Amino acid sequence: MTTAELKPAIPADEEQRLEALRRYGTFGLLRESVFDDIARMAAFICRTPISLISLVDSNRQWFLSQSGIDACETSRDASFCAHALVGTGMLVVEDAREDARFARNPWVTGEPFVRFYVGAPLLTPDGYALGTLCVVDHEPRRLTAEQKDALLSLSRLVMTQLELIRLKREMQALQQSFAPRPGTLIP
What we know:
Elements: H1 3-6, H2 14-22, H3 33-46, E1 50-56, E2 60-67, E3 73-75, E4 91-93, H4 106-109, E5 116-123, E6 129-137, H5 145-178
Antiparallel strand pairs: 1-2, 1-6, 2-3, 4-5, 5-6
């Protein structure tokens, strides 16, 4: 298998998806403790040592929150989450060593030795997948139906928080546009 075969497919609507991602602002400014809380809840509910909230741009995957690993980002080519962008459903990989898409992935063959991955897509109100809320384990396994439902609920909560941040930023910009300019007399 060549490196090119490891790369995730690019969604047909990639330009629109990236534009939707840009509406949420600069990744670094999105860091908030609520995302860490959600990631920890996902790991607790799914009983995994690792959970991540990832956003995927044109060439990297950036972790809005991570629990159980120290990395802040990876290349898109090595990203499990980028594979979830081409659909609207949950991506389930019960044993990455047995999945042709991931068997030679550096996250499988080296640290953190990913075996199990489930990613719930982070879908915008207009249907674009920005990334995932995912749980990861070092051992092959399965989630229960209840755990999958909870992960999907938490992914919607992540998007609700992202929407609130976006709307707050837009509201502040609108308020500033109506603020009186210095030196302007108010009748």
